Model the fold of this input.
Amino acid sequence: MTSLYSRPVTVHQRPELQALMQTDRTLDPGITLPASWYHDPQIWQRERWPIFGSNWVHVAYDHQLRNSGDYVTENLAGWPIFIRRKDDGTLSAFYNMCPHRAGPIVFEGEGCSKNVVCKYHGWAFNADGKLLSARDFGAEAPDNMDLTAIQVGSWRGMVFVCLNPAIAPLHEWLGEFPKEVESVPLESYRFHSKSVRHVACNWKTYGDNFLEGYHLPTTHPAMSRDADALNYKVVYKGDPRWNIHTMPPRDASTFGVFGYFWPTFAFDVFPGGFAVERWLPRGHTHSDLIFEYFFDDDADGIEDIVKFSEEVADEDARMCEHVQRNLDAGNYNTGVLSPKWEYPLAIFHSMIREAIGSVDGDER
Done:
């Protein structure tokens, strides 16, 4: 099963999205997704493969995988995986599951393992996941007992994976997006810090929040003083999967440019640095909101920038948890979208509807 958005799409392929992306914003973007789509476990199961299994998802960085044998694990929408640096310098990625009895190949987190051996019963595999030895099995192991490989790719120091082997390679899948950020000197920035918030909200609740600037004056008053939030803009350039956000800066503004790529990747550009912002689903009820900061060696005011960004993240997380509780409560079904501010949500919701398909009994 694949989604229409598994490969790069262009506006002319999706006329209804082209209409939503027009610059005059005169069209009524309609209503939101039903509240049940934000808490129904069956919706979560329906969206896992077409959205998180069949798109490239950012899960790690090259700096975490510098040396041969270095690995990083992730739980991608319920699928435990790991990425590992091979002796030849290339990356490999697999489901973190031995085909014998589903034991882990590596334990959660980061580390270095010179050999690929199941932690449970000691079955050994080569760097490409081929079975080398079924330790003390008592018989010859059956055929097709190799690790299940998944696609992995690196773009400008960021490592992405895709579970669906039918999806185009990362650099093709990204389409025209890399051109939009080619002027940002990502490779010259060094990792500074990371924060993780375990937020009690569905991944779509946070996605809705990121994709509009309507809430900035009321949810982020300090941010609105830092930049001109009333002239916040979301700009599309032909591909509904990604967009660029801009705010006219005030004097010495911390914020100014943001970017988003479907389904859960975003970045914030700061003076002398940037942050990757991603929200990975932990089931249908929670999401991990992850911020990773990178700066030039001679950047000014780094600690103040990070502190300010973290305060904004706290405000977003708090608001999304309140919204989620109201979506769960049962007295709200659908809302209306602002044609001035919330057309990006209409595009986002259209992509989700396309991926999931029709659901009996839900208003669409």
About this structure: The mean pLDDT is 91. The longest strand covers residues 190-199. The domain at 15-50+182-356 is CATH 3.90.380.10 (Naphthalene 1,2-dioxygenase Alpha Subunit; Chain A, domain 1). The first helix runs from residue 15 to 20.
